[in-house]
Amino acid sequence: MKITKEEILYVANLARLNVDDVEVEKLAAQIGDILSYVDTLEKVDTDGVEPTTHAIDLTNALREDVVHPHLGAEKTLANAPDEEENMFVVPKVVG
Amino acid sequence: MSLHTMTLTEAHGLLRDKKISSRELTEAVLARIDEVDPKVGAYITVDQTGALAAADAADARLAKGEASTLTGLPVGLKDLLCTQGLKTTCASKMLEHFVPPYDATVVTQLREAGAVFPGKLNMDEFAMGSTTEHSALQTTQNPWDLSRVPGGSSGGSAAAVAADLCLAALGSDTGGSIRQPASHCGIVGMKPTYGRVSRYGLVAFASSLDQIGPMTKSVEDSALLMETISGYDPRDSTSVPKEVPDYRRLMKDEEGKGLAGMTVGLPVEYWQADGVDPEVMAAVTQAKATLESLGARCVSVSLPHTEYAVAAYYVIAPSEASSNLARYDGVRYGMSQRGGDGLLSLYKNTRSEGFGDEVKRRIIIGTYALSSGYYDAYYKKASQVRTLIVEDFKTAFQSCDFIISPVAPSPAGKKGESADDPLKMYLSDLFTLSANLAGIPGMSVPCGLTRQGLPVGLQLLGRHFDEATLLKAAWHFERTAGFQGQRPPL
C-alpha cells in the first residue's frame, strides 16, 4: 500500500483529527490511490525549475504603520464558545 | 414577464424607469424561493427581513436619483462570503452557527452599490467538492433534472440563478467551482484573474488559487458584477492595484465587427482528451463553428503539461487547505467540543466532529504532503510543475487571444455517482483547474443542451487580467448562439 495505516494515524495526529479503526482503513485506501496518482509528477523533469507559489507576480505589500479602527473586544468575542474578562477561555494547559 | 426571471440588466432598466420597485422585485424573488426552493435546496439561509429592508432602502435611493446599476437588485451569496450579522456556515457543522462580525469586501461593495441579499447559498463543505453533495447541511438538486447534482462547489449559487431564486449570485472558484456548476446549470460563470477581486472575508480554502466571481443569467450581467467587485483592496495583499476596465463598454466596442481579427486557441490536450462525453464534444465543436462564423480564426495550440495538472493541483490545494483549516480549533469561534481532558482533546474532538469526510481527507493529504521528509517530493515538486503549467499558457497565448474547451467532460451526474471515489471526482476537474494554477481568468457560457435536456458549457480561458476579451467573445457568442434565457422545466 502507498500509505500505511500507521502513517495515516501519525498524520491525523499532526492535523489534530481523531481517526477510528474503520476510518483508517478507508482513508489508507483512498489516500493511497490519490498519492499513487500524484506520483505521475515524478515523470516531469523539473531540474532547475523555480517553484511557483503565486501565479501573479507579487511584491511585498507594505503600508504606513497607522492605527485603523478594529473590531473591538465585544465583536471579536461574539462567537467565542467561552470567554471571561475579554479573553478566550481554554482548558487548563499547564499542570 | 415575471419579475424573478429577469436579468440584472433588464431589472435595472425597469427600476430606473420606475416601472417596478425593488420591494416588488424582492418580494417576487422571495415568493419564488418559497415556491421552488423546497425542491431545489439552493439556500441555506433566507434573510427575508434583511432583504426587504435593503429593498426599501434601495427604493428610497432610486427615488432620490442616487442609484447605481445594481441598486435594488437581489443577488445571492455563496455561504462562504462573510456577511455581518448573517450566518455564514461554509456548509459545515464547524461553522453552522457562525455569525461574522464583519462583511467580506465583495459584500461591502455590493451593499454600497445598493444590492439586496435574499440569502446564503449551499456549497460543498469549505468549497471542497464538485457536486455540492459534500455539504454537511443540505442537498441541492440540479433544476434541470432534480435527480442530478448541480455541480460544485458553488452548486447552490448555480442552481439558484438557474431556477430564478435570485437575479445573479456570487460564487468562488479554486479549481473550477464557479465554471463547472455554471456549466451544469446552464448559466454564465466567471472566474476572474487571481488578484482581480479581493478575497478579504472569503473563508479561505487554498489561498493561492481561490477567486470570487459572478454567476449570472447573461454575459452582460457578468460584466456588470465584475465592474463592481474588481479592484485593489488594502485588506487583501494579493489583490492587484490595476484599474478596473469598463467591461460592458469594451464588450460591445466595435460591435459590428464581431470577433474579426481574434484568434482562438484549441489546446490539443483538451480537444483530444479521453473520456469526454460525445454530446459535450458535439456542443463545444458547434460553439467553435459559431465563433468562426463571427469572424474568429481558430488555431491549434498545445499545453503539454496538462496531464500533470490534476496531480499538481491535488497536492497544492490540500496543502494550502491543511494550513488554512488549522484555525478551526474550538477556541475562538465555530464548533467547540469541550469536556475532554485538556487542550489536545478540545482540538481533536472539535475538528473530528466539525469537519466532514472530504474535508478531513484533504487535510490529511495536505498535512502528509507538507510533513517532514515529504515536502520536496510532493509540495515542492507540484509547485515546480505549476511553473511549467504557467509557462504553457504563456506560450499558448503568444499565438491566440483566448482558449476554448469543454468545461467538464460530462453533463451533470446523478446524485451519489461519485460518492465513494474521490479520485474520480478529482479527475473530472481536468479542464478547469489549470486556470487556477496559472492564475488566468476563465468563463463558462451555455452552449447547448444534451438530448436528455442537460446544459453544456463552453469554457473560455484568457490572459492574466484580460477578462475583457473573454466577456467580448462570450457576449457575441451568446447573442448568436441563442442559449441565453433557456429555462429548466421546474
Explain what this protein looks like in three dimensions.
The complex is a heterodimer of chains A (95) and B (490). Chain A is mostly helical. Chain A has a domain of 38 residues: Histone, subunit A (Orthogonal Bundle). Chain A is built from three helices and two strands, in the order αααββ. A two-stranded antiparallel sheet of chain A has the order 1-2. In chain A, strand 1 and strand 2 form a beta hairpin. In chain B, helix 5 packs parallel to helix 6. In chain B, strands 1-3-2-4-6-5-10-11-9-7-8 form an eleven-stranded mixed beta sheet. Chain B has a domain of 254 residues: Amidase signature (AS) domain (Amidase signature (AS) enzymes). The longest helix of chain B is centred in the C-terminal third of the chain and has 21 residues. Chain B has 17 helices and eleven strands. Chains A and B meet through helix 1 and helix 2 of A and helix 11, helix 12, helix 13, helix 14 and helix 15 of B.
Which key terms come to mind for this protein?
heterodimer, A: mainly alpha, Histone, subunit A, two-stranded antiparallel ribbon, 2 strands, B: alpha/beta, Amidase signature (AS) enzymes, 11-stranded mixed sheet
Topology, element by element:
The complex is a heterodimer of chains A (95) and B (490).
Chain A: H1 5-14, H2 21-38, H3 73-76, E1 83-84, E2 87-88
Antiparallel strand pairs in A: 1-2
Chain B: H1 8-16, H2 22-40, E1 43-46, H3 48-63, E2 75-78, H4 105-113, E3 119-121, H5 155-162, E4 168-173, H6 179-185, E5 188-191, E6 211-216, H7 219-229, H8 247-252, E7 263-267, H9 268-271, H10 278-293, E8 297-301, H11 309-324, H12 343-354, H13 357-370, H14 376-396, E9 402-406, H15 422-427, H16 430-438, E10 442-449, E11 455-462, H17 467-481
Parallel strand pairs in B: 2-3, 2-4, 7-8, 7-9
Antiparallel strand pairs in B: 1-3, 4-6, 5-6, 5-10, 9-11, 10-11
Helix pairs in contact in B: 2-3, 5-6, 7-17, 11-13, 11-14
